[in-house]
Amino acid sequence: MKTLIVIPARYASTRYPGKALAPLRGASGVAKPLIQRSWEAAQEVQGIDRVVVATDDARISEVAQGFGADVVMTSSDCQNGTERCAEALDALGGGFDVVVNLQGDAPLTPHWFIEDLVQGLMAHPTAEVATPVLRADGRALMGFQDDRRAGRVGGTTVVFGAEGKALYFSKEVIPYTGGSETAPNSPTSVFHHVGVYAYRPSALAAYPRWAPGPLETLEGLEQLRFLERERPVQCIEVDAKGRQFWELNNPEDVPRIEEMLRGMQVD
Question: Is the pLDDT of residue 181 over 70?
Answer without folding.
Answer: yes
